[in-house]
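Posting for a labmate who doesn't have an account.
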Amino acid sequence: MHMKPIYCGKVREIYDISDKYLVIVTTDRISAFDHILTEPIKGKGIVLNKISNFWFDKTRNIVSNHIIDDKIENMPTFFQNEFFRDRTVMVEKLNMLPFEFVVRGYLYGSMWKAYENGERFCDTKWPKNYKLAQKLEQPILTPAIKHDIGHDEYVSIEEVASRIGTEMTKQITDICFRLYEECSKYAFSKGLIIADAKFEFGQNRQGELVLADEIFTPDSSRYWDADSYKVGVSPDSFDKQFLRNWLLNNKVNGEFQFDKVPESVLLQTEKLYNECLNRLVS
């Protein structure tokens, strides 16, 4: 029996296996600047899947999640193949909310750009004395509407509430901050700073809120090395930033050289992903 995915993303493939369940496979593909590279990062899908499952397991006391099973032996025959091992999960089908929620604990990325230009970011403006990568006094929540094409669009909490109701918005806000606070604390004990984290939610058949997608992976969160972290300096991160930096620094006539990335850069990227997993689960 051959199965075709109903969705192929930059990294994940989703299979519809019944009226209740989906199977999600995390591939080794890597994308940068909205472009999937021809060369994958060996074992990246397994690392992402293991990190996500580790955190899903650790946060069940805060919110229920969509994981049903992570053993290929308990999935349809098509998935009982070594390729799928450790990179595949069976999940509950949910009615997904059209938003993603990013908790930011540090001034970085698009938020830093807005700050430098003196602009508001998601309705927030900070005092003038912040430096790059500085920890915020309080983490903030920045919701965005998910778009299949192009970039997600930031919206206010009020707009979220007008779409899904005040009660559910408050519930999500509380869950996001709790997830970020508890998991950041644990990561810090392992020498990692979680600068920000993205969450997605859906509702099950009973209308209950369920955490979905992936959580606290280096693709959906920014991990920094706590030992080398300094305020005012762009921190060392355990994700594809190393690869992105190579692409930014090696443009030819203004064009990214996606198919010319040296093997050493791919290997170093692989090493960073693995290091993140090893620190967390050691």
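Reply:
Got it, the structure tokens are right above this. The longest helix spans residues 166-189.
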